Amino acid sequence: MGDFGVTTEQSVAWRSIAKIKDEEFELLLSEGERLDTQDKMLDFNRRGMLRKGEGFVYVVECAGYYKIGKSTKPIKRLNTMRSNNPLDINVIITEKFVDYGEIEKYLHKRYKGKLHRQEWYEFNKQDVEDIRNYIKDKKR
């Protein structure tokens, strides 16, 4: 086990998904992300590819604003967001779906009134909890 509580195999898997350097890998593994995202990413890596139409829906937070997004390469997407932003970006939700595009589209429509600027939203705690519950229900 390394400093972040992941095995060497897991560490190699994460790096291979994101194609990132050791120093960048340490920055990527913050406590909150590691707990909720690690197993999903490793599952993605073991399979080697996603099925047609399959991808991830995510919610990230930065300076009190939230972004709802989708990606077939969520670690790469997170790295891109972080490289273009001097503030911390925290992963709130990451979940894999077959119909990930439709789920993201629904969430964008549902929270249109909370849009702050471009793709960033102003959510309160209840909004985040509602999104978590919606995601949980869609996984059933």
How would you describe this structure to a colleague?
Helices cover 51% and strands 20% of the residues. The protein has one domain. Helix 1 crosses helix 3. A 5-stranded antiparallel beta sheet has the order 3-1-2-5-4. It starts with 7 loop residues before the first helix and ends with a helix. The longest helix is centred in the N-terminal third of the chain and has 17 residues. Strand 1 and strand 2 form a beta hairpin. The chain is globular and about 35 Å long. The protein has 140 residues and is α+β, with helices and mostly antiparallel strands.
Write out key terms for the chains shown.
single chain, 140 residues, alpha+beta, five-stranded antiparallel sheet, 6 helices, globular, disordered N terminus
Task: Please summarize what this structure is.
With 140 residues, this protein is α+β, with helices and mostly antiparallel strands.
Describe the SSE topology.
Blueprint: H1 8-18, H2 22-28, H3 31-47, E1 55-62, E2 65-71, H4 74-83, E3 90-97, H5 100-110, E4 115-117, E5 120-121, H6 125-139
Antiparallel strand pairs: 1-2, 1-3, 2-5, 4-5
Helix pairs in contact: 1-3
Q: Report the β-strand fraction as a percent range.
A: 15-25%
What would the average pLDDT be, to the nearest integer? 76
Number of domains: 1
Q: Helix amount, in percent? A: 40-55%
Structural class: alpha+beta
Parts with pLDDT < 50 across at least 5 consecutive residues:
1-6, 14-39, 41-48
